[in-house]
From TrEMBL:
The keyword Membrane applies. The chain crosses the membrane at residues 35-55. Keywords: Cell membrane, Membrane, Transmembrane, Transmembrane helix. InterPro entries: CLS_N. Residues 80-101 are annotated as: Disordered. This is PLD nuclease N-terminal domain-containing protein. Residues 88-101 have a biased composition (Basic and acidic residues). It is found in: Cell membrane.
Length: 101
């Protein structure tokens, strides 16, 4: 079992780092161009993956919380009870139900 884990953990880390690297927007990549990071992760799986996770991508501080959108600070996720569009849609549904009955 330990032999399998010694193979699967680095493989999973490399796959995760590679997918994270290629799906990251260009403006969020630090220190090197994105294609160079991808090559580094593929050629040196452990070192490249750990380097990417530590230094390759701009990450927001955990204290800020997840906003739902990474790049635009103006567009934040809004709770349904604070979202006027959602509340209006509920009112419209109630009116439709009353009209049908």
């Amino acid at each position: 079992m330990l032999r399998v884990l010694m193979f699967l953990v680095p493989l999973a880390l490399s796959i995760y780092a590679f997918i994270d690297c290629i799906s990251t927007q260009d403006e969020d990549v630090r220190h090197m161009p994105k294609p160079l990071w991808a090559i580094l992760v593929l050629l040196f799986p452990m070192v490249g993956s750990i380097s990417w996770l530590i230094a390759g991508k701009k990450r927001s501080p955990a204290a800020e919380g997840w906003s739902g959108v990474r790049s635009n600070r103006d567009r934040r996720w809004v709770a349904p009870d604070d979202n006027p569009e959602f509340l209006k849609s509920l009112d419209d549904e109630k009116k439709d139900e009353r009209d049908e009955s």
